[in-house]
């Protein structure tokens, strides 16, 4: 899914028909800072360190596979987003990318809000003390029980995703005697340039209410007619892992057009628009993500310009980055188990995790990079496929990459940029135990989500 489509590398190039892999870096020992968390570096012995702690120590203390997350990087990214958007906008971290109680506390301390999309995420947020008014509740099929909990907790906004939900939320709010703040999620008809499964603004999909055919205008009409709902704005999320701002611009323009129509029809200027998340990160050296201040400027320029031409007051903007905050802050550490060279083809490197800790490669054809991190090596690069230990030939973690030819069982390798949608999409396939998340800050490492145990598996199995 990264945009890289580079010429074949020097080894085995003749047999690579897919052609979607990067040529090896001039020196495989050099870590490309674009894809690694900020405090990652190599120590004098060549071992990778995170926050000053060598991976061998991390592996010894916490085991493998494990996700290691750079807390200072996470916090810095939160601040960068908050600073870029400034006091007249709101940044909601999308909890689906990765959520835990520690994360909720960091968000609070760094002044971010939180977008949740299930009862489980809402519980985690509230349990860790996130003030309810700083929570946005999303989802295309929130259950009645979830809506009740969100209303009772007093969440700052519920994002209405369907006509049924308008009525459902209104009814629940009325029965609780509250006026619930809501936004309406619209689909603006943009084809985002990303994988089909994570594009969400074209009309032929389950999310949102289409702007086309006046459906969104009708949703506004119905919402405004209900006393127990306070319509604060319009929401649009066009998809994920997007680099090109063009889709956001079209989306902003169409949402502002709807605001103008609402003003003309109802005499109401809705005060907010939410442009969703979806900003891409670097998974490989070929990806060039934008900085938050660039994104903030591009979005606010377009909204301001469109509002001026429609003679509307500029609404308060909110955004919902998930991956762009947590994605680059973590790597997954694996131990190499078996190595299977296929002469003239590639070498399969099996690690102690796999699709249960990173389903993205199998699901979206996502591209990742990988490095030998327990030592450096001067050996030739060899073309590898990093695979897991599951009973599937599609159990691929990194499809095409280069590692030194002297790689051996017991070496530690790491896959960077696994902070988003890896632990949160992890599974127990083959009764795998989901790995821990270890946060590192100022030379200290601590478990924030512990490793699953076999007792955890058996506890759920009550038959
Ligand atoms: N806001 C809404 C309403 C969303 O649905 C999402 C993601 C976000 C914000 C955050 O998007 P982000 O900035 O993290 O791209 N599992 C897929 C991604 C699915 C995203 C779903 N919604 C993946 O691994 O790429």
TrEMBL record:
**Keywords on record:** Amino-acid biosynthesis, Decarboxylase, Lyase, Lysine biosynthesis, Pyridoxal phosphate
The catalytic activity of this protein is classed by the Enzyme Commission as: 4.1.1.20
Residues at the catalytic site: 391
Question: What pathway is it annotated to?
Answer: Amino-acid biosynthesis; L-lysine biosynthesis via DAP pathway; L-lysine from DL-2,6-diaminopimelate: step 1/1
Annotated Pfam families: Orn_Arg_deC_N, Orn_DAP_Arg_deC
- In its UniProt record, which GO terms are filed under biological process? lysine biosynthetic process via diaminopimelate
User: Ranges for the Orn/DAP/Arg decarboxylase 2 N-terminal domain?
Assistant: 73-327
Q: Orn/DAP/Arg decarboxylase 2 C-terminal domain location, by residue?
A: 333-419
Give the catalysed reaction(s), semicolon-separated.
meso-2,6-diaminopimelate + H(+) = L-lysine + CO2
User: Main EC class of this protein?
Assistant: lyase
Which residues, renumbered to this chain, carry the PTM N6-(pyridoxal phosphate)lysine?
A: 96
Q: What does this protein do?
A: Specifically catalyzes the decarboxylation of meso-diaminopimelate (meso-DAP) to L-lysine.
- PANTHER family in UniProt: DIAMINOPIMELATE DECARBOXYLASE (PTHR43727), GROUP IV DECARBOXYLASE (PTHR43727:SF2)
Similarity comment text for this entry: Belongs to the Orn/Lys/Arg decarboxylase class-II family. LysA subfamily.
- What's the protein here called? Diaminopimelate decarboxylase
Q: Which gene encodes it?
A: lysA
